[in-house]
Amino acid sequence: MKQILGNLENKTTEPEELKNHLGEEVRIHGSIYKIRKMRDFSFVLLRTGRDILQCIYMPQTAGFPEEELKEESCVTVTAQVIEEARSKSGYDLQMTALEVLSEPKEKSPIVINNKLVDTSIENLLNYRPVTLRNEKQRAIFKLQEGICNGFRQFLLKERFTEIHTPKIVQAGAEGGANIFRLDYFGKEAYLAQSPQFYKQMMVGVFERVFEIAPVFRAEKHDTSRHLNEYTGVDFEMGYIESFEDIMEMETKMIRSAFAYLEENYQKELELLKVDLPEAEAIPAIRFTEAKEAVAKEYRRTIKDYEDFEPEEEKLLCEYIRKKTGSEFVFVTHYPSKKRPFYTMESSENKKETESFDLLFRGLEVTTGGQRIHSFDEQVKKMEQRGMNTELFESYLLMHKCGMPPHGGLGLGLERFTSKLLLQDNVRYSTLFPRDINRVAP
Prior knowledge:
elongated; five-stranded mixed β-barrel; eight-stranded mixed sheet
């Protein structure tokens, strides 16, 4: 019987190690990204997991005919690492041998090896398995990995425990019509609108918890800012003194994530020309004051006194940036009518809540606030809203058995990434978008 010992050794050289092999012969693998033919030689760009490596094909030194080189072929290349001061990397890879592992059966329907994929957003998404191979397209999601890593490392350092909650649930956390219903073995169930109930429950276990996971909303919006499945970055923390503790934690988290990107994702930041904004301090303004400030500054009539219109979010961010220089702003004390049943109402004004949104470059990217931790207060608010408390028995059990003052937030990863990259559509920062028109690829 064969024993598998886990002794996996690299049989090819990693791109970041090539500079350590000057004057030596190495083997590297990847896909042929682009071939640029010159008079006496050719540049062959090799796409590896994170890098684009420039190889040089010269007939007199290569041990194979140039016809074997085809774009999007998966290959293993043997090459001499030759020092070259004019190269950005400091070396050239002079090809000496080639092993073709696979060849494409047909030509790509979209040109992907230019600096930009010059096509419509529909084509970009329809041919996603191919268009993501473009250097800048894939850099978006490498950077998104960095954002998640930055958030995760920060939260773990701040004594949060990472959890994984169910995505098939008995009741919707937000309620309303924007919930996907399922036939669950003859019972009615739903796709989770958020991990809200579970992360609150887990505050009673670990005090501080977080999750980075999919969230589902059956909203029939067809806009540049809405998705029906997105990635939520959620955290919940107990023993807070006020909802401002949550805002302080998010400010610190964003600042830490940006520092993490600066240190570990410089390659993607430069490629995508990302300007990381300052997050040393984020201004906070009350909801009513924000509405009035925008109305006065831009001579607008307030049409909705209970929520922000998308245009108002953009104008508020513009106003705050002019006043303070910040590209972020917290909007606090949203009306109770517009917040879920578990949101704590303000002791100063029961029509307002101890809640907030974080706006970033004109778009709401986070919703958060303090939760009701008293069993009697939670039941009272649910009954006032005409809710059947029997349907929330397991959720209310935590209140019955005692909960500390707590609160948390949910951040939309795709929206956050999109605004960081100054994109005008959240789908550009969504790996395989799910909206009202798209369930494939």
